[in-house]
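Table S2 (text version). Query chain:
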Amino acid sequence: DELANNIKDSCIGMLMTSNNHSYDTGFSGLKRTARILKENGLEFTGTKETLSDPEYLVKEVNGIKIGIVNFTYETTGSGPNRKYLNGGAIKQEANDYINTFSYQRLEKFYTQAQSVIDGMKQNGAEFITFYMHWGEEYQLTANNWQKTIAQKLCNMGVDIIIGGHPHVVQPME
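Corresponding structure-token output:
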């Protein structure tokens, strides 16, 4: 709770909350984080408190409407219709509360991404931003998955992709 207050006091206005640690404190922790952020007037994308929360934001900045969404990679696991983060299973009821993608089910992600892009545009977005939590830690270059997904997202109309997770700076294209 105090961290949310400090973030607000530091003038940070928006957070990306979908990452490989989003579910570290379970479903109740995931939803509680979203609730605390809302209570502090902090906008975020990537996770939800309720299913009716949007999966993306459209913000007007200097007269331009920018669509913003955040996704994180899933890890592998064994279970139908289950998502896994950091090797741990997510409760099936929590699946739709975290924006994720699976390297093994990219067509499903591309369908979801197109739906998000279309929704952003319907809400007036003129510029589309995807924040992707992906890649391999401490690798100084993007892997083939990142390159493949990035190109596909660009082909779908994404204007900028910002990536995180490797803990090092990777090249920009």
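Notes on Table S2: The longest strand covers residues 64-73. The chain has a mean pLDDT of 94.
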